[in-house]
## 1
Amino acid sequence: KHTGNREGGAITAALFLKEFVGDARWMHLDIAGPAFLDRPHGVSPKGGSGFGVMTAIRFLESLAEPEPEAEETEEA
């Protein structure tokens, strides 16, 4: 459960994490769910909906996939 009010939580978390990452390039994504589900719904499990998590996962997976090699066509 989040503590405090709704404003400023993401920056507080980012500033906290900054203390531990050193010189590494990093990014903080505040993906706390805007909804809390009492039961599973569609692809979302019970609990925090984690808005945007599935989209972020698909995007990161696409970055990890090798580029398809262009097929060379032979001219007859």
## 2
Amino acid sequence: MRFMLRSPSCDSPAQDCQMLNEPTLNKQHQSRQVLSNQVDIHPDLLSITKRHCDHPYQKPISNSQRIAYEKARMLWTQQGCPDTILDIGCGTGLSTRFLARCHPHVLVIGIDPSSHRLSKSIHDTPNVLFIRARAEEFWLQMAQDNWRPIGMTFFYPNPWPKKKHIKRRWHAHPIWPQIQRWQCPMLLRTNWEIYAREWHFVCEALSVPAKFSRFQPIQPITRFEAKYQASGHTLFQVSTDHEDILKLASTVL
């Protein structure tokens, strides 16, 4: 099955639609632009990527992470092992539910390490599962079981903008080359251009076709997206397998 993020009509609960389509924010709620002492792609990014390729990530998996993974795997098995989309860093789950409505026959798993954020999620979509987990340990266990998602989304991850924090960004994580070998379509959205350009740079370094673009969302699908758009931020996305994945509710500039 091809991973095509389609744009459905706004059939989410009323409070979701009202929140996500809010045209303006009060001044005290205006979101500031990302501030960083880094002005371009990090000079060490290529060497970091090469090192991660030469030394596969092998972090021991904690018991709590095994339990979280088994919960997801059990549901996946009970549903007949359907195609799966992972929404990484899903927060309160608005984007997860959006994806599930786009793909009613796919299991959409929202993964977030914060129980506080997940406690605010709404469980009104049958093909959604929210899991409190660290994505890197979840991925390792999926790889061990040969469970491959058909798509992954990363909506406005923490950009870790300080130059010294480069290794905390997803595309500089030790597990990143292993995940890219899945040849799984991915979509990143961010309001920091350097983060998006670094993501695209690593894709190219790993010979993964990717497309970098600026965009304006027609229908914001996360609180961050709504806030950044209302604050006048330029938004960026990087997609792999872009002929399909750019079907998400957006207008590419």
## 3
Amino acid sequence: MKVLVTGATSGLGRNAVEYLRHQGISVRATGRNEAMGKLLSKMGAEFVPADLTELVSSQAKVMLAGIDTLWHCSSFTSPWGTQQAFDLANVRATRRLGEWAVAWGVRNFVHISSPSLYFDYHHHRDVQEDFRPQRFANEFARSKAASEEVIHLLAQANPNTRFTILRPQSLFGPHDKVFIPRLAQMMQHYGSVLLPRGGSALVDMTYYENSGTCDVARQPATVRSFALWPPPGISPTANRARCTASCRS
């Protein structure tokens, strides 16, 4: 088996490459950071520098040659940005990559989405995976919901390719440049982390490797969506110890 990992020079993608290589699985990795790509190559991955928003058919054909499974970790995740920027990276790039994957025989397509598409500024517990707010909180959430619609349409039209959507919540762990650094910045600025309801509210977080080890091989050959949650009943105060340990590692 050979796996293509997009967004491989970012936190989730880099952890995915490391996990796959530790399992002895052949990996082709793509991303924009060529310096990071050299580190991935040292792990035994085949690195192909690419910006998916500018990818053309001939490049995609080479990138997807011999690929059995595609882990689409690439995404524009900035808290700020224009609608055009989010649509280009998260919707259009996903559609084109999915179409090319189908055309060149990729059997499994794993699309990394986000539970931000549930967020509506209200407390929720046991959120159903098909829940959608009346209005998305920001352009990122809207674009990730739109990218999921793209995947559903591709799955309906192409039953020979198995599509899976994963929505990991608050990713943290090695190589994290988003979640833990923001908490550290908050600590530095305010002297503490502001916790929902003083730390009594339940929150969900996903360790990078747990996201990578999700078993999608047994899912039926139609599109499925899964939110990734930790064991129930985890409070922010309990998670704080986990985050601290992650910062020290």
## 4
Amino acid sequence: MNEIEEVGRRLKDAYLSGSVAALEALIEDDELILDQVSSLTGFFINDSTPLHVAALRGHLDFAKALLTRKPELAIELDSSWSSALHLACTKGHF
């Protein structure tokens, strides 16, 4: 597994579990990890961002942590043209 795949795996583990501590550890290791999200697109379902998954799963603290560090994630759309807010609403997480 190369370094990009390892970072992608660690980020995926963090957003699937909603672990803010894991996210913070990733950011501590690489302050630019959230700027690299677009290069890790293959790791995310339907070209979604970690914020999309956090919204779907109701991981509010994780979503807040992401948006505090990278607010522009709020306007990212997945391959279905849905924002994280759209997904949160469809699951009743509002």
